[in-house]
């Protein structure tokens, strides 16, 4: 590509050098996912379901929600009805699959892509957080279980969608859900190490996801497939609720650890998801986007 071709991409340049073209805003068109197809793991509830909804609102025709239960939750059913009511032709489909089963996931995502004739967006949001254990005594089986879902399962999900993007020779966006815990360690209070944030398996798995995205981004960049991570801070869902509901003092502790003084809401990730999934982020790959209320800023 020549320097002139690059320059001609600028809308300012196009409209000022061709008086026949009148300026008009294009920014929201760049965020449109009109007619695209997505797959989101862990989308029976929580952040995954909120992200699937965001893809539908941005115009995806079908978003496949992959999760463990045979039948979707009431929350998923209600979200599905809301999406139908949008009237933009978008809909959610539920698919029962375990992200740890590589071949089954590849097969299921291939069936989705064959039915739709494309696969454009993948969000790997399935994840688990187990009870804390002192790192020096962390049980082997539990460490493997967390790595299996949070690291291997994320890779298998990204592979499943990426293979279809390549097969259909289309550019695509793969978004891996990491965590701020991949970059920092949630503060352990020295007095209550065993009941607090001794999450060595979770933190390790999320760090793996950050490097997985960079590594995949480098291999898939030449094929037009972007791979990025989204790293949320503390957000109230069933995953964090398992801790907050049993230890209410954690709400104040977690809130006080970012400059905004509160936890985030699942809907506060929608904007970043819409941006990363769309053409508005077409030169963004291998990046980690932190949405943590500034948790890492002090
Ligand atoms: N909630 C937070 O504060 C927070 C912060 C940072 C990162 N995250 C990450 O965001 C993602 C979503 O978390 P959430 O808070 O919505 O949790 P959640 O527990 O509400 O949702 C996780 C979903 O993943 C599914 N899942 C688990 N194992 C699976 C498997 N083997 N196969 C398929 N699906 C499986 C679960 O059934 C569940 O529906 C996770 O990767 C989590 O680590 C969450």
Automatic annotation (TrEMBL):
Source species, domain of life: Eukaryota
Tagged with keyword S-adenosyl-L-methionine: no
Keywords for this protein: NADP, Oxidoreductase
InterPro entries cross-referenced by the UniProt entry: NAD(P)-bd_dom_sf (IPR036291), Sc_DH/Rdtase_CS (IPR020904), SDR_fam (IPR002347)
GO molecular function, one term: oxidoreductase activity, acting on the CH-OH group of donors, NAD or NADP as acceptor
Pfam family, one: adh_short_C2
Family statement drawn from the similarity comment of this UniProt entry: Belongs to the short-chain dehydrogenases/reductases (SDR) family.
Record-given protein name: Sorbose reductase sou1
Species, as recorded: Piloderma croceum (strain F 1598)
